[in-house]
Amino acid sequence: MSILSTLALIIALATQLRAGDEHSAYDNKYVRFEFSLNQDDYAAGETGTLSLFLTPNNGVHVNTEPPVEYEFEKQAHIFFSKNAVMPKDSVSGNLDVRKPVSISFTLDNRAAAGTYTVTGKVKYFFCSETEGWCRQFVQPLTVSIRVRE
Predict the structure, then answer these.
(1) How far apart are alpha carbons 27 and 95 in whole angstroms?
(2) Which domains can be identified in the chain, with CATH numbers?
(3) Residue 51 pairs with which residues in a beta bridge?
(4) How many C-beta atoms surround the C-beta of residue 61 within 10 A?
(5) I need a labelling partner for 33 at 20 to 30 A (CA). Which of 9, 46, 68, 142 fits?
(6) pLDDT tens digits, one per residue of 28-72
(7) 95 CA to centre of own chain
């Protein structure tokens, strides 16, 4: 193998490892995180819902105390509610993961048509029922909200 081929292979492997490390920093191997909006697009002045789905592995639960917290960068035309709606399992008191955590938002009446990208983070606590430990996780989140004409 020539020196150039070896160098190209080393660079390719290093790039893959670096990209994998960056990606894994945002993954929680104990709780799968997904989100969705209740509509594809919104009118100015309309209210929408951002649904967060936290699906823990078997033997792991997501706590409701302390509650799921979130923070989004300030946007001139999008206003998020201060508190999320967190479904609680009536038996365990933990998060009922069959239902989403819901965060409502309102678009300003003067929001121009287009796509608004909002970045933020969601913080939650989860526990292993079998191993007896609990951890906090901060999930980065980027949401694109489309405003129609």
Answers:
(1) 19
(2) 29-147 (2.60.40.10)
(3) 36, 102
(4) 22
(5) 46
(6) 999 999 999 999 999 999 999 999 999 999 999 999 999 999 999
(7) 16
